[in-house]
Amino acid sequence: MNLMVLGGGQNVGASCYFLKLGKSNILLDAGIGIDKEGLVFTPNLHALKTSPFINSLSQIDEIFISHAHLDHVGYLTHVATESTQANTYMTAVTKALTKYQLYDRVYSNANARELERLATKSVLDRIISVTYAKTIKFRNYSATFFPAGHIPGAMMILFEYRNSKILYTGDYSIANSPLTSGCFDFSGFKIDTMIMCGLHSKHSSYAKNQNGIYKTIEKIYKQIFLGRSVSCQVNQLTKGVEFLKLLNDFNQQDILIYVDKNLLNVIEKLEIPILHENVRLYNSATVSDAPHICITSKKVTKSKYYNMNIDFSLHVDFSEIKNFVTKINARHVYIVHCEKPFSLNDHDIEQAVMRESDCRSQFIFIDNQEIYRL
User: Fold this and answer.
1) pLDDT band at 235 (very low <50, low <70, confident <90, very high)
2) Domain residues for 155?
3) 105 confidence band (pLDDT: 50, 70, 90)
4) Of 222, 227, 286, 228, nearest to 258 (Cα)?
5) Radius of gyration of the chain (CA)
6) pLDDT digit string, tens, across residues 49-59
7) CA distances in angstroms from 241 to 200, 298, 341, listed in the order given
8) Which of 310, 330, 360 is the last residue of a domain?
9) Global confidence as pTM
10) Of 138, 146, 121, whose CA–CA distance to 63 is shortest?
11) DSSP strands (E only) in 279-342
């Protein structure tokens, strides 16, 4: 059993992990990243092709996608096109969101290159939808899928190979959110190895501000009370859906809420019943003169709006990570998708749990292109 990180090791973006179980070659996620200059970066597939394991992506047997954020799925079209023998597995909700992000938005332009469009559509049409708690038996291992929380459709994958249990978490959440419940409780599963996306595993000082988003909503409705319309720009469409759900929960006076086409498409893909009578499609020419709220993926430049950038974390904080790894208590925890410490005073998750008397976990912070035998 071997693990190789192709992207998204001790950094965020371009998550892609090669897992070898005997003769089976597996890819976990296939994302893109964007650096500080706004340039897109991708997994290092060349490193895999020149590794001891394979020399062509045609030797990949299966691809598993944990969820539909672009840092985990944005490079799927390229990877799956090269992986001619591989099937791709994800939940039905993730498939719908992936199709929207990689096809519907990209190829809505009639001038899009036809061959590229057809190739992308072919890849997405071949995706196999899986359901939670379902086990699929492959050549020499089995995979079972569990809810991960985080966003709708996100899944964790439990691999069983010979006498070993290997859990890939993807991004996950423990607490319930407006759109999804927390992740599955693996207590008693006796996990041997965990490959954990641990964004805040080196941030002992980080704790989520649970009331932050509610203060933001309070500020929005205060502006409405003062007679001003508010434009809310969201940086991720799934966050926009969650934000709309919260706004509606606190909308006591049926204030009109306009959403742009991108957000409306995601709501329809998720089939979430949050389109109340007060929710309308945003069109700058037909919006009401009365104070209202706009939720858009791009900033509204009209002067009559009070502009706000809406952002809140869908990731677990340090305390939640500690509770999670302590409960699972895997023998080996390989931490990926991990940002560097915020400050010199921050310690990592290994330092936080090493004094726990019943902790048996060994932590490995695995970086890009590193290879470990599990």
Assistant:
1) confident
2) 2-206+314-373
3) confident
4) 286
5) 22
6) 999 999 999 99
7) 24, 15, 31
8) 310
9) 0.92
10) 138
11) 279-281, 293-296, 305-310, 332-336
